[in-house]
Design a protein that fits this description.
This protein is an alpha+beta fold. It contains three helices and five strands. It has helices at residues 25-35, 37-60, 70-75, and strands spanning 65-69, 85-88, 94-98, 101-107, 110-115. Strand 2 (85-88) and strand 3 (94-98) form a beta hairpin.
Length: 118
């Protein structure tokens, strides 16, 4: 006698293959979306802030190099904790990059904005 299998999402009886877990693609997608919601939200939030940081750097640095006060970046919503890469020069200057847009703390709350050339 076979045991009745239930859909992991909606609980309805499943017909078909013995290893089937869901009654439909809709239930499979809904189950996996709900299961991965927390991880996906963290990734989505982080990516959105990285994009915002990049847009801010690009806006304030239309050329390849410019100097800006920290308060302008903060006022625009820049998050200094999120970046995609770090580059340390031979002189030990540390540039933080958000994709191809970078910044260097030059002291007294000023930053040098640079663009990495391709």
């Amino acid at each position: 006698m076979e045991k009745e299998k239930k859909c992991l999402e909606c609980g309805t009886e499943i017909l078909g293959r013995a290893d089937k877990k869901f009654c439909s693609d809709y239930c499979r997608n809904a189950y996996n979306n709900r299961k991965n919601k927390t991880a996906n939200n963290l990734i989505r939030t982080t990516n959105n802030q990285l994009k915002k940081n990049w847009r801010i750097l690009e806006k304030f640095n239309p050329e390849e190099k410019t100097k800006i006060h920290k308060s302008k970046l903060i006022q625009a919503g820049f998050d200094f904790n999120l970046f995609t890469g770090i580059y340390t020069t031979k002189k030990q200057s540390v540039y933080y990059f958000v994709y191809d847009q970078g910044y260097l703390d030059i002291g007294h709350d000023f930053y040098m904005l640079v663009k990495r050339l391709k």
